[in-house]
Amino acid sequence: MKERINKILHALNENLIEREEVIQLALLTAIAGESIFLLGPPGVAKSLIARRLKHIFKSGKSFEYLMNRFSTPDEIFGPVAISKLKDHDIYERKTEKYLPWADVVFLDEIWKAGPSIQNSLLTAINEKIYRNGQQEEKINLKGLISASNELPAKGEGLEALWDRFIVRYFVTNITNPQKFNDFIRTNFDPFKINLDDKNKITEKEYENWQAEINEVVISDEALNVINVIRHYINEYNKKEDTERPIYISDRRWKKIVKLLQTSAYLNNRIKIDLMDCFLISHTLWDEIEHIKIVTEFVEDAIKKHGYSLKFNLSYFSQDLQELEYDINSQTKKVHIVSFYEKKIHIINNENYYKIIDSNNYLKSRNYNKKYEYLKITDISKTKTYNRTRNQIYLYDINGQKSTFFIAINNIKEDSIEIIKHDQWGYGNTQQLLSIETDKKQRKEIKKIRPHQAIITEWNKKIKNIKESINKTINEIENYKRNELAELKSNIFVSRNYADIPEHNLNQTIRQLYELKLTADKLKNEYSNIY
Questions:
Q1: What pLDDT score does 295 carry?
Q2: Which of 349, 392, 387 has its CA nearest to residue 373?
Q3: 309 DSSP 8-state letter
Q4: Angle, CA 362 vertex, CA 359 and CA 363 arms, to 5°
Q5: Where are the domains of the chain?
Q6: How much of the chain, in percent, has pLDDT values that exceed 90?
Q7: CA dihedral sign, ordered 416, 418, 421, 426
Q8: From CA 87, how far away is CA 343, in angstroms rounded?
Q9: Is 146 a residue whose pLDDT tops 90?
Q10: Quick one: pLDDT at residue 228?
Q11: SS3 state of residue 33
């Protein structure tokens, strides 16, 4: 299958420049039975893609039409059969050569279509049914490609039709100068492709593929990534500055998953992998400014959460947390120790200590008792304790400086020792004055060596945890060797994106080694208690 799809893509891309991705998406949506919208200026090969795409089907038929505001249903779905209306009074259309008859349809400037055309398109796109007169006809439509140089206008009832286009892609002119020169020099028939009949898709094959695609497993990784993206979108929409919220209906998510299943199936897989999930970025945006936002959401979800379920580290973390709690409860005894700390008073945005002059020492030395505060910055400026360099002024409760000073001899935890006799600073008497303090408490932990039987049990638990971690690391390394090559060969996603899931795996391995280190630290903690 994969080889065959690669041959089809090669034929579709032949002689086209910088159109590989849009052709991959057009092929993918056609095989998934979905629709794609191409936004871009005229002349960037939008209709050419549709004309080429019909050739991948045996007896493939195509229909294309340029819409305008005067377009009628007759021009899209076929004219009314006059003979039936006249002879049998039956209103039916002759649909041959029109949209219900075609395998691949290209509708240019689709937003110019009138309401009657839009309503018929809704059923045709979603259910592959066209109501022709009094009966419903199953139509052959496989891929619908629509195009415009603008997005649907707001408030004109186009939301339902816009929601039907699962893939949206912005097509630009050729950007590489050398490739542009190659394009100018090349002569070829743009509407034909060189594809052997044996590689073309038959109607029977297409029907079988649809059934088999539905059997592709939606992996836990894919579901997790989708849920993370939905969370990102919800958080984005809650922001106050979000003028244009991103809306994804449940029906749209269902069709997005179908697209991922198709990608996995065409890549010879029975399960969606993370590389398939990169396709989601082409399905979420409604506005041009959304493209960068949703691309970052998708890449971030895969990078950070891609393998969080496949290689779940929470079990190891929980085991280590429980073991740490057990070790702490058995080896550590907490004591409450009381201590005193100088109380800080704030006066006019300055910090002060308050002197407790219980013996009226300062008052007896001609100090006014109201001056009982020492500015902390004054104390911190003192470098040595001597009479001449440590003379500090006292302050009152309003921050007013006194005319008196004291000479500091020593500062202790809860008191201050001064040298002072009189108001001129002379004297050599030492006096110990208390400083107002707050009583506080702190926890001190005393370590206790547990019984040897308990240590033996802990050693056994740590050994088992580390062995399980090593086993998981080996599983990831094997997965990298066996699966990353497959990730890089996805035919619908650039191999450059494979670095992102690989980053997730490497990050998981680093976290596992950190958990091993945590286990070793726990062991050292109780082993070194004597």
A1: 96
A2: 392
A3: T
A4: 85
A5: 2-213, 220-305, 314-331+448-527, 344-435
A6: 50
A7: negative
A8: 108
A9: yes
A10: 96
A11: coil
d(CA 350, CA 422): 27
Confirm whether pTM is higher than 0.85: no
- CA–CA separation, 127 and 141 (whole Å): 10
Mean pLDDT score across all residues of the chain:
88
* Rounded Cα gap, residues 40 and 8, in angstroms: 25
Residue 95 three-state SS: coil
pLDDT the model gives residue 364: 67
- Cβ neighbours of residue 480 under 8 Å, at least 6 residues apart? 502, 505
Farthest-apart Cα atoms in the chain, separation: 135
Q: Helix, strand, coil % (nearest 5) of the chain?
A: 50, 20, 35
Asked if the model's pLDDT at residue 383 lies above 60, the reply is no
Handedness of CA 150, 151, 156, 161 (dihedral sign): positive
pLDDT tens digit sequence for 18-62: 899 999 999 999 999 999 999 988 888 888 888 899 899 998 898
Provide the pLDDT for residue 237. 93
Q: How far apart are alpha carbons 528 and 450 in whole angstroms?
A: 11
Is residue 390 within 8 A of residue 382, CB to CB? The reply is yes
Among the listed residues 121, 136, 111, the one whose alpha carbon sits nearest the alpha carbon of residue 35: 121
Residue 378 vs residue 462, higher pLDDT? 462
Helix H segments across 306-400? 314-331, 361-364, 376-381
Q: What is the 3-state secondary structure (H, E, C) of 194-217?
A: CCCHHHCECHHHHHHHHHHHCCCE
The DSSP line for 157-192 is S-HHHHHH--EEEE------HHHHHHHHH----TT-
Could you tell me if 31 and 211 are in contact, meaning their C-beta atoms sit under 8 angstroms apart? Answer: no
CA distance 23 to 127: 24
Q: Does domain 2-213 have CATH number 3.40.50.300?
A: yes
Nearest of 162, 199, 223 to residue 12 by alpha carbon: 199
CB 191: neighbour CB atoms within 10 A? Answer: 13
Name the packing angle between helices 203-213 and 20-32 (round to 10°). 90
Q: What digits encode the pLDDT tens for the residues 234-262?
A: 999 998 778 889 999 999 999 999 999 99
Q: Are 244 and 128 in contact, with CB atoms under 8 Å apart? A: no
Question: How is residue 323 annotated by DSSP?
Answer: H
Task: Tell which residue, 349, 338, 330, has the closest CA to residue 447.
Answer: 330
